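Hi all, long-time lurker, first post. I run a small reading group and we've been trying to get comfortable going from sequence to structure in the token notation. Rather than ask abstract questions, I figured I'd post a concrete chain and ask someone more experienced to write out its structure so we can walk through it together at our next meeting. Sequence below, copied exactly:
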Amino acid sequence: MTFNKDESAGYLANHLARLFARELQARIKPLGLSTGTFPALLVLWEGDGLTQRELIEHLDIEQPTMANTLTRMERDGLIQRRKDPADGRVQRIWLTDQARALEGPATAAAEAVNADALAGLEYEERVAFQATMRRIIATLQAPVGDRGIPARRRAESA
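-- Answer (accepted) --
Happy to help. Here is the structure in token form:
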């Protein structure tokens, strides 16, 4: 059996992600943002004051990658790290006014990329595509022994 990249879900998902990232980068670069910092900003725009560990859990990325991203964001004036008043060993990440002001233009750019990318799909196809991606993500985030078991059946057996 020969591997066919055009029939590989992983290859196609990776290719699609790179195309999305390229389009998003072109639109947010004028704002001084990058696709490396954008996911962290999305989480922090929902509610800042998180710890690095909490961001790692939200974003499903490795600790060294998150540390480098936060260093760049701090350098670029997007975040401030402050000690937690209840536990001085913990640092919390807070958005700066500069980062807050970028939320509207940056999310509008992302919405435009999504609209352009999905323009060839009917509404029902878009909904199904997004639902399928969420299910695949949930499958890959589940413990290995639970994979292949639909989430609703896992919930019923718990």
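A couple of things your group might point at:
Residues 5-117 form a domain with the Arc Repressor Mutant, subunit A fold (CATH 1.10.10.10).
The chain has seven helices and three strands.
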